[in-house]
């Protein structure tokens, strides 16, 4: 059975400012760095063999911190990027017009094909995330990889593995540096293929590493 660990990046400046990040970038806050250290400390004893990260700065920064604990190199995969949010990237939620908020809602509470102008649909996001996950099956036997990605990206992936719509990701609470695990199994008694073992575990994060919105 292949076990793949999924980590959302640490808190960023734009997370605290309630901005739409998408594929634009913002650095980790000091708290985000602390979160990355804590998930790295937890993963240290898990026998991690590969760290595969989105190529965006906030995920690479998180992955590099984790790598110090797991003693393995970081490689990047652009398929693990966050949803492309088109013309709304970098905007504060509080500044969106009614029409713009409607576009955003079409993603998180709407339909599979909802999208922001110039951006991706949740279906497209989940499709490339599935490809990145499936690529882990080509790793050498005994591998235990970590994928470092983003909230909506990981949520859409886990949702589809559970047989839910990609936009159901908002029903999953994946906090900054939360840890999830999915397994690929062959079994006479259980479902074959990808199964979700855990989602959004934050047992490794101390109370001061959870921001006010996450407590």
Describe the structure.
The protein has 215 residues and is an alpha/beta fold. Helix content is 32%, strand content 16%. Helix 5 crosses helix 6 (151-161). The model has no long low-confidence stretch (mean pLDDT 93).
Features:
alpha/beta; 6 helices; 16% strand
Blueprint (SSEs and pairs):
Layout (H helix, E strand, L loop, with lengths): L1 E7 L4 H4 L13 H14 L6 E4 L3 H14 L3 E3 L21 H11 L13 H14 L9 E5 L1 H11 L17 E7 L7 E9 L14
Parallel strand pairs: 1-4, 2-3, 2-4
Antiparallel strand pairs: 1-5, 5-6
Helix pairs in contact: 2-3, 5-6
Give a brief rundown of this model.
The chain has helices at residues 13-16, 30-43, 57-70, 98-108, 122-135, 151-161, and strands spanning 2-8, 50-53, 74-76, 145-149, 179-185, 193-201.
Question: Which H/E pattern describes the elements?
Answer: EHHEHEHHEHEE
The global form is: globular
Structural class category:
alpha/beta
- pLDDT averaged residue by residue: 93
- Give the helix tally: 6
| Proportion of residues in extended strands | 15-25%
Number of strands: 6
Stretches with pLDDT under 50, minimum 5 residues: none
How much is the radius of gyration in Å?
17 Å
Strand order of the largest sheet: 3-2-4-1-5-6
Biggest pleated-sheet summary: 6 strands, mixed
Percent helix among the residues? 25-40%
From the N-terminal CA to the C-terminal CA, the straight-line distance is 34 Å
């Amino acid at each position: 059975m292949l076990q793949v660990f999924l980590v959302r990046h640490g808190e960023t400046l734009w997370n605290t400012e309630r901005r739409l990040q998408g594929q634009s970038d913002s650095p980790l806050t000091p708290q985000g760095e602390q979160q990355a250290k804590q998930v790295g400390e937890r993963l240290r004893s898990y026998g991690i063999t590969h760290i595969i990260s989105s190529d965006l700065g906030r995920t690479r920064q998180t992955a590099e911190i984790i790598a110090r604990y797991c003693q393995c190199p970081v490689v990047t995969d652009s398929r693990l990027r966050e949803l492309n949010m088109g013309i709304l990237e970098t905007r504060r939620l509080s500044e969106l017009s009614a029409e713009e908020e409607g576009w955003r809602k079409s993603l998180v509470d709407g339909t599979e094909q909802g999208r922001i102008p110039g951006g991706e649909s949740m279906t497209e996001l989940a499709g490339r995330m599935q490809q990145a996950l499936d690529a882990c099956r080509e790793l050498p036997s005994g591998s235990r990889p970590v994928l470092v990605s983003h909230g909506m990206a990981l949520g859409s992936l886990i949702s589809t593995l559970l047989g839910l719509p990609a936009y159901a990701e908002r029903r999953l609470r994946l906090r900054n540096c939360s840890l999830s695990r999915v397994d690929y199994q062959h079994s006479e008694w259980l479902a074959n293929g990808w199964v979700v073992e855990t989602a959004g575990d934050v047992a490794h994060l101390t109370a001061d590493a959870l921001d006010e919105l996450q407590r």
